[in-house]
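Section 5.1 Outputs to date
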Amino acid sequence: MNTQIQPSFVSDNSFLGGQKTAVLITLLAIVLILGIYYETIESIVAIWNRSETYAHGYLIVPFCIYMIWKKRPVLASVDYRPSYVPLLILAGLGAGWLMAAAASVQVAEQYALVAMIPIIVWAILGWNVFSTIIFPLAYLLFAVPFGEVFIPPLIDFTADFTVNALQFVGMPVYREGSFFSIPSGNWSVVEACSGVRYLIASVTLGTLYAYLTYRSVTRRFVFIVCSILVPIIANGMRAFLIVMTGHLSGMRLAVGVDHLIYGWVFFGLVMLLLFWLGSFWREDHLPVVSDRDLAESDQASSTVPIKTTLGMGVLVVAVAAVWPVYLHYLNNKTDIRPIPEISITDPSGKWKIDPTQFSDWMPGYVGFSRQFIGHFQHENQHIGLYITYYRNQQQTDKLISTGNVLVAEKNSGWRNISGDTRKIALGATELSVNENVLHAASDHLLIWRWFWLIDQETDSSYRGKVIQAVNRILGKGDDGAEIMVAAAYEHNPEEAVSVLREFIADMKPVITESLQVVQSESTRN
């Protein structure tokens, strides 16, 4: 008997009834879960609305739908079968979302939620469907507004590139951090000059281009790497050309908003060049899957078990929903009473309160907090102590935030020259601190700072977030403070090291005890 497999799966209406039902169950589960996590979705859309850097987020979902739609012949031919393994991953992402929400790390919340969508597809529709559309599902992650963490290193790279290029062409340069001076004027590399917008746009478009244009994993990988490296290097060249344009024009050109316009024009030309060069190795004219492969896949396909699929959909929603429910429980337990006053005095009498300020520098913090600012003196040594205490932290009102800065205002006259970490021996223990050097017109400060988080201390903002999340989930609260000590110096920052070390050795037990008193009183009142 001679039989032939009919290639009906190639038509647009090729989904079997059971497959359509499974897809509808999957979409319904995704909609329900996104509704449960509506606050996280709102935070993503709010950033799309207010920031031009992330406005491309509105295009990501349509791009993903288009790429999945192009895969419909293959999707019609594979076996749809729920899988229980992804439930463990889904639970892990839910726990990660809870940790991020407890620590007010919005971007981690957003990534955890968006990453749930591919796992939901895997759980309900099975591995065959998931592996077929894994790239379009993964591309959804580009909808998350991410990239601010790269701004400081991009600023440093752009400043390094520009200064080195100026020195290479024989231009004398004096540099302090991201600020530098040449004979014709002063320049600085700020957030708008970091190139983070170029990088985000390049990676988002470059990844899509690589997927649509190439079939080889190697070619895709190489092009994506190029879409990362090219805008970074191009931004350094852009900054150098802008400085040279300003210098050669007598500081008449490229010193205002026009240098941003020049930057986008230059970036557009660079990206066109990158895509043009990439087109020489394109493979999009090659067939993705042969008709024979599709026929064999169609022969292996089977009817979708609808009851099992529906049961998996209910289970998926239940696993994903438990985490926001627990967060709601934690929020209802939150104590919103005010923070008591912070009082720091030296019981030994060695460090006396100094009524005069040796510096006009002040750190900047966002939200509502309790602050202690004190100046201490011992013989001819002067120390500034700055403590900022937070409780009941929210996204716009938290201890560890990019909004909390050492130099609050651009016109304050202060500049953050450098930052590093330092370990301080305190008897049998060791304290790790963040060290910053600040300069003003005639003043120089060395700053040591670290975080106090109820029963732990750290200099790491990342570790601090984890500690805060664990404390809150365990019911300890989210109390935390940043402690800063500052000392002036004349020529070398090392001049201030000994006085800072002596003050911390003497006063750290007093500071810690005072913060513990504040925390216990806040909890008890």
